[in-house]
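Consider the tokenized backbone below.
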């Protein structure tokens, strides 16, 4: 059925030439420098206007984010997420794959949408608008329809938000075709085993150094709950019970703290998730295991970890040092995963790896946008992937 976008404030407001220039400036700044660089003064400077119109329209970050959503984000979301999800639900993976070829060329729109989707972790008003645009259509639907639409939206969101360079458009054809097939299969809902993927929680970091542990864990918890920009070094010091000298003696900047957290968490997560997956697969089989992993992203107590991961993904878009660390960690994951795909053509194996990374990113965002999905029967989606 055709998608009917939610009504927004934009439909009721007139647009002046100055407003159009300011909106274009917001989009360009977000795409090139990241949303954290967007403020009324920067908007006015980029738009070539006086400061007053910018300050009058954009008093806080939420207002700026909503203006970006209304000017470019919701149209980009329809083109880059909803249309792809619709193609997958319709069993048309070729149309979904064509997105990679034809629609990634609009880099400003994609960059803005990617940032907006990741910003929903800490902006409740923006989250409400995007939730209405993406998820409202499945309200009242039966669980089978709901979980299939959520699966399709998750894949599409993952393709948009992933900072990973996909190895090639045609290498994703096979995993996208598998998803499209799985979404059209008639599968009986199944009660999933009562297990909890503890590795998805916001586990404390332990290095053996009390000062380092206090600094890293204070930063981890603060960023997971409030975001990177709102977490100052003063707040980290206060939460950790440390002096500024104690922290700055080990970490020159807040970004250095984040990089250390990411590297330690990545190593631990890869090891524990692999062990969890192997043990559960032996016990219940691959399709049920994958369904459990889908469900666990939506578990309420795992949300802080999802928010932290989304914020790291967003920061990496404009912080080369962090991006290089994420790339290195994913290269390790890819190398390990490729070893399990012996017998597949290399292009297909790489496509499977890329798809796995995209899917993980999509699950984190969808878990924030639609946490109620925790109760859905995910085996309706995953069973078809393993037949």
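A designed sequence for it:
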């Amino acid at each position: 059925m055709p998608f009917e976008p939610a009504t927004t404030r934009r439909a009721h407001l007139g647009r002046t030439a100055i407003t159009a220039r300011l909106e274009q400036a917001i989009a360009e700044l977000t795409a090139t420098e990241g949303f954290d660089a967007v403020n009324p003064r920067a908007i006015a400077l980029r738009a070539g206007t006086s400061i007053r119109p910018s300050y009058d329209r954009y008093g806080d970050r939420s207002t700026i984010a909503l203006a970006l959503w209304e000017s470019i984000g919701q149209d980009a979301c329809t083109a880059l997420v909803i249309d792809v999800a619709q193609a997958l639900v319709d069993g048309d993976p070729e149309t979904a794959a064509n997105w990679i070829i034809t629609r990634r060329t609009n880099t400003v729109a994609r960059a803005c949408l990617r940032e907006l989707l990741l910003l929903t972790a800490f902006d409740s008003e923006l989250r409400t608008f995007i939730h209405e645009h993406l998820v409202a259509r499945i309200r009242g639907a039966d669980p089978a329809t709901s979980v299939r639409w959520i699966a399709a939206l998750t894949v599409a969101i993952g393709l948009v938000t992933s900072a990973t360079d996909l190895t090639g458009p045609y290498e994703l054809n096979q995993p996208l075709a598998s998803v499209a097939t799985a979404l059209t299969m008639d599968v009986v809902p199944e009660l999933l085993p009562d297990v909890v993927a503890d590795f998805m929680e916001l586990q404390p970091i332990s290095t053996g150094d009390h000062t380092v542990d206090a600094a890293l864990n204070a930063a981890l918890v603060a960023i997971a709950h409030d975001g990177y920009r709102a977490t100052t070094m003063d707040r980290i010091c206060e939460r950790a019970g440390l002096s500024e000298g104690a922290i700055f003696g080990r970490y020159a900047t807040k970004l250095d703290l984040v990089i250390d957290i990411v590297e330690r968490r990545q190593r631990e997560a890869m090891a524990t998730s692999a062990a969890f997956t192997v043990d559960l697969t032996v016990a219940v089989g691959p399709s049920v295991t994958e369904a459990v992993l889908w469900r666990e992203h939506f578990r309420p107590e795992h949300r802080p970890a999802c928010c932290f991961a989304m914020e790291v993904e967003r920061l990496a878009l404009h912080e080369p040092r962090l991006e290089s660390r994420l790339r290195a960690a994913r290269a390790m994951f890819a190398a390990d995963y490729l070893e399990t795909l012996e017998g597949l053509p290399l292009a297909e194996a790489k496509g499977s790896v890329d798809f796995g990374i995209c899917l993980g990113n999509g699950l984190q965002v969808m878990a924030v946008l639609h946490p109620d999905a925790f109760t859905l029967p995910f085996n309706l989606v995953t069973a078809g992937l393993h037949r």
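Residues 254-284 form the longest helix (31 residues).
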